[in-house]
Write a structure and sequence with these properties.
Elements (H helix, E strand, L loop, with lengths): L6 H28 L10 H55 L6 H22 L2 E2 L2 E2 L11 E6 L2 E2 L3 E2 L9 E5 L7 E9 L1 E2 L4 E5 L19 E4 L2 E5 L3 E2 L4 E7 L2 E3 L7 E5 L2 E4 L4 H5 L9 H13 L3 H54 L3 H27 L8
Antiparallel strand pairs: 1-2, 3-14, 4-13, 5-13, 6-11, 7-9, 7-13, 8-12, 10-11, 15-16
Helix pairs in contact: 1-7, 2-3, 2-6, 3-5, 5-6
């Protein structure tokens, strides 16, 4: 059986080969230009899938490293500020020792009282230190100064509504706060509707835990949220998920809270990086001494020329220093953990970079060889195409 090879078949085969070599040449040149072995999914489907996973992990690691750096900056500033506060209490103790002795008199104690006031003002400034736009010692309420210049009685702030709430009515808070620590109470709407049908849940710890859902109609009157605080809503329609907050403060100088601030350092891994003013400067929570009250009492004793009362503050000043030094040691412990985690993340990032390069990066020397080979093949295809194009019947009439 004779098979006839027509000119059209030769032409189509030559053009097909030419396009194939041209495509292969372009692919090699693209890899050489980008220095990447994988530029699109079709280059290596399995490798592309691995790259997506590895690069996502690399992105997460970058975020965790930034978190660690930010936390270290916060801890460094906190430790420096607390060290300054400790130094002020040392000076206050020295004044108390000198002015509680028999060699002191009313005049020297008046002068010492002025010095204590200066120490008080400096301590207040340190306790209200900010890093960026956040206060170091305010707990989670770090958008407002945590300490006031004078002692305040227990108080209840005006309630606030979360952004995006559907309820457009007015909410008020009332009562006498009986709690021993500053706290945030939260009401969350579980089932929306009018006040006589909507249901809600109450959190008495700033949203960490929640009570059971209320019965319908419980919003028609004052709602007891705890510790002598109540919230009242005017008639209106509530949307599911609406949230309302009210902050309450115990007597004293502190207006922040005792909440820890944590930062993600890995998947399902977080670390606390703050020291609250409650722990460092007050007698609430883990603290045992109200440092500001102690300085105020020391000043009053000096102004009233009462050496016995001056001496009575010495023990409190010493315990206040121990309290602050404990907070400093916690900063050091947290910073050490952050440094160790940061070093681990840096090593992990280097390993991920190597793994990504092993999959993605091209063999430049090999590509250069392929380019040369493809150029030769492409030139040969051009020459063959040119010869076929020039073939006519005259070539065979000789």
């Amino acid at each position: 059986m004779t098979i006839r090879i027509t000119d059209n078949m030769r032409y189509n085969t030559t053009v097909g080969n030419l396009f194939t070599i041209q495509r292969q040449y372009n692919e090699v040149m693209e890899k050489l230009a980008s220095q990447k072995r994988i530029n699109k999914l079709s280059d290596d489907a399995l490798g592309s899938s691995q790259l997506v996973d590895f690069k996502k992990t690399q992105h997460d690691i970058t975020g965790y490293r930034k978190n660690a750096d930010d936390a270290l900056s916060w801890l460094s500033m906190t430790e420096s500020t607390l060290t300054g506060a400790n130094d002020l209490l040392v000076k206050a103790g020295e004044l108390a020792v000198s002015q509680s002795s028999a060699s002191a008199n009313a005049s020297s104690r008046k002068i010492a009282a002025q010095n204590v006031q200066a120490l008080y003002d400096q301590l207040l400034s340190l306790a209200n230190t900010k890093l960026g736009d956040r206060y170091l010692f305010a707990g989670s309420q770090n958008d407002a100064e945590p300490f006031t210049g004078s002692r305040r009685e227990a108080g209840i702030d005006a309630p606030t509504a979360a952004a995006g709430n559907g309820y457009a009515g007015k909410v008020t808070a009332a009562g006498t706060y009986l709690g021993e620590r500053n706290n945030t109470y939260v009401i969350k709407i579980i089932e929306g509707g009018a006040e006589d049908t909507a249901t809600f849940s109450i959190s008495r710890d700033g949203g960490k835990t929640w009570d059971a859902k209320s019965a319908p109609g419980a919003m028609t009157g004052p709602i007891d949220v705890g510790d002598g605080v109540s919230m009242t809503f005017t008639p209106g329609t509530f949307a599911t998920g609406d949230i309302f907050y009210v902050n309450a403060s115990a007597p004293g100088y502190y207006r922040g809270n005792g909440d820890d601030l944590s930062v993600a350092l890995g998947k399902d891994t977080a670390a606390v990086y703050n020291v609250t003013g409650e722990a460092a400067f007050t007698d609430r929570g883990p603290g045992k001494v109200d440092v500001f009250q102690t300085l105020a009492d020391l000043k009053a004793a000096l102004e009233n020329n009462k050496p016995g009362d001056v001496a009575a503050q010495l023990d409190k000043l010493e315990k206040g220093r121990e309290q602050i030094n404990l907070a400093i040691s916690k900063c050091g412990t947290a910073a050490n953990r952050m440094e160790m985690t940061k070093n681990s993340l840096e090593k992990l990032s280097e390993n991920m970079t190597t793994m990504i390069a092993d999959i993605e990066d091209a063999d430049i020397a090999g590509l250069a060889t392929q380019v040369a080979a493809k150029q030769v093949a492409l030139q040969a295809c051009y020459e063959v195409a040119a010869r076929i194009q020039n073939n006519t019947i005259l070539n065979f009439l000789k």
